[in-house]
Amino acid sequence: MRLFMAMLYTETNTFSDIPAGWAAFREGGYSRNHASADPQSPLGVLLAEWRRLAEADGCTIIEGPAAMAQPSGRTVRPVYEALREQILDDVRAALPLDIALFNLHGSMAAEGYDDCEGDLLAAVRAIVGPDTIIGAELDLHCNVSDAMLTATDALVAYKEYPHIDELERARELYALCRDAAAGRVTPRTGSFDCRMISLWRTTEEPMRGFVQRMQALEGHDGVLSVSFGHGFPWSDVADVTSRIWVITDGDQAKADRLARELALEIYALREETRPMSLDIDTALDRAAVCPGLVVLADVADNPGGGAASDSTFILQACLDRGLRGVAIGCLWDPQAVALCQEAGVGARFNLRIGGKMGPASGMPIDLPVTVRAIQRDHAQTGFAGVHTPMGPSAWIEAEGIDIVLNSRREQIFSPDAFTSIGIDLAVRRIVVVKSTQHFHAAFAAIADTVLYVATPGAIAPDFAAIPYSKREASFWPRHPDPLRLNDAA
């Protein structure tokens, strides 16, 4: 078999003022045809797994471009079009193909394109024809469109939030597409729009049980794959929603029926699964009386959702209370990092930090700081042990609070974002992380208490108030029952 694989991956917050241009993709990662050579990089981890599996099956592998950028605002139009054309050129050169696999996010938007994945996959289908099996692995926070479903034979989304199952889903997609290309299965997809916009933490019940329910269905009675795309709420596009889709072996009616059944199950849990977050003062009051290490998640300033990661709201509240034993990271402030590098370790000087990207970042804070450490190539451990660069970074101490400043915008995944620069979390009372949920996979083992905090940041979790202009249908939580099930009863 001849297998083509490529990657185009970024999550678009259409309300963000941070554009994604060439610099964003160069920093996030770009490779014309060789990303799989580095399986420990975010760019290469999935492609390397597909290569390993395909080589074991004796496939001829053609690797196309791989590009990714940190979540931000819309991708600059010429950049998206250039990356798309590179992929399409390589697809044409690789013909004929049995399988084409893509690592995509599922909520990428560019200037002039609200559905980059649908646009790309439809163009691939037009080139390869109806007989090539096209599959794509998607982030759980995908906004799945009809164009994406129509152009592909199989879409598979992560099931876990935090996304600890990327490799498992890569293996699932590969096996499904290989078997389809060999004629062993005939994928048929049924989908159902849940008309809900929210975030679902799969570390908690009842979501934990729902994920297990999806997994228990797979591999039995002709069910090949079940996905729940949570959607990416901060996308002002027509397809922003949560969606269930089911892939069966040749049974369209069953796929449609099971997708609806599962969608109604998760819909019935909408109030019970609503993510709860505290305001800053309540969170700090609670942290003051909790024993052991308390982790506060600054959910609204998560760069993994397109936020700047430079908001100062929690930092200012900690300063106002005179708190000690607090570590905060990472504040994205390349200018402040450069000043710390210039001053050197041990230097004491006045430094303005944070609050640089607009109202959602809060006000900048002027502090007398001591530079405790500098790392020119700071990094942390991401999912699947992936090396996640954070760029030149500095650990500063100010009024008893330890702050990690970085120059490459990245959310917190692991405690080594703090410990590898020298901060001992074992002697801290509170750790504030710029992350919505991905931190949980590694921090749950060391935290005595985890609290989610809703600051006035760029991705504040007030889903009913997001100012959509392109979504037509009503949705929960703006409407209590958009599927009108109570009317049917």
Secondary structure elements and pairings:
Elements: E1 2-9, H1 22-28, E2 30-31, H2 45-56, E3 60-68, H3 77-94, E4 99-104, H4 116-128, E5 133-138, H5 146-151, E6 154-157, H6 166-181, E7 187-193, H7 207-217, E8 223-229, E9 243-249, H8 252-268, H9 280-289, E10 294-298, H10 313-321, E11 326-332, H11 334-343, E12 348-353, E13 365-381, E14 387-398, E15 401-406, H12 416-419, E16 430-433, H13 440-443, E17 449-453, H14 485-488
Parallel strand pairs: 1-3, 1-4, 4-5, 5-6, 10-16, 10-17, 11-15, 11-16
Antiparallel strand pairs: 2-3, 7-9, 8-9, 12-13, 13-14, 14-15
What features would you highlight for this structure?
globular, 2 domains, 489 residues, alpha/beta, 6-stranded mixed β-sheet, 14 helices, Rossmann fold, 8-stranded mixed β-sheet
| Mean pLDDT over the residues | 97
CATH class of the largest domain: Alpha Beta
Helix content: 25-40%
Structure summary, number of beta strands: 17
Quickly count the helices: 14
The CATH topology name of the largest domain reads Rossmann fold
Query: C-alpha Rg, in Å?
Result: 23 Å
What form results from the Cα inertia axes? globular
The percent range for strand residues is 15-25%
The CATH superfamily name of the largest domain is Response regulator
Main pleated-sheet profile: 8 strands, mixed
CATH architecture of the largest domain: 3-Layer(aba) Sandwich
